[in-house]
Specification:
By secondary structure, the protein is mainly α. The protein has seven helices and no strands.
Length: about 140
């Protein structure tokens, strides 16, 4: 299987569109602009996760596909923190559930999720039902 090397172009276009549209708000009220950026990023992350989990068109998922989503998430984090005054940590926090779910599914030892201490430390935002649904999509039909 080929491992993806970069983010999707449409993610870049979406982030550029978001940036351009919110720059006008930033001129009027910087606090409102930051809140708007973070809400938009949180919504994007939520919809990506829901798409992976609930979309009837995503019947099966592979490690390279999850890696591609990871690259897209990292692009959003890096691009938005460079383009705005928002810290990468705040952006990552806005995408916490998606970020932690991908970290869990892409790691070498996902069994550590079963360790309650590690789960509370690393995967506090991950919902077990979502992990179960995604793992079901790893099955080979």
């Amino acid at each position: 299987m080929t491992i993806p090397q970069g983010h999707h172009e449409f993610i870049e276009d979406m982030i550029d569109w978001l940036k351009n549209n919110l720059q006008n708000i930033e001129l009027l009220n910087k606090t409102l602009a930051i809140e708007s950026y973070l809400n938009a990023i949180q919504y994007i992350a939520y919809k990506i996760l829901r798409f992976i989990i609930d979309s009837p068109t995503v019947k099966r998922i592979t490690q390279p596909a999850l890696h591609q989503v990871w690259l897209d998430v990292k692009f959003i984090e890096e691009h938005m923190s460079m383009a705005t005054s928002i810290s990468a940590r705040d952006i990552k926090d806005s995408m916490r559930e998606l970020y932690q779910t991908l970290m869990l599914l892409l790691m070498d030892n996902p069994m550590e999720y079963l360790d309650e201490n590690k789960r509370m430390e690393k995967y506090i935002a991950v919902k077990g039902i979502n992990v179960m649904k995604i793992c079901e999509k790893f099955k080979v039909y």
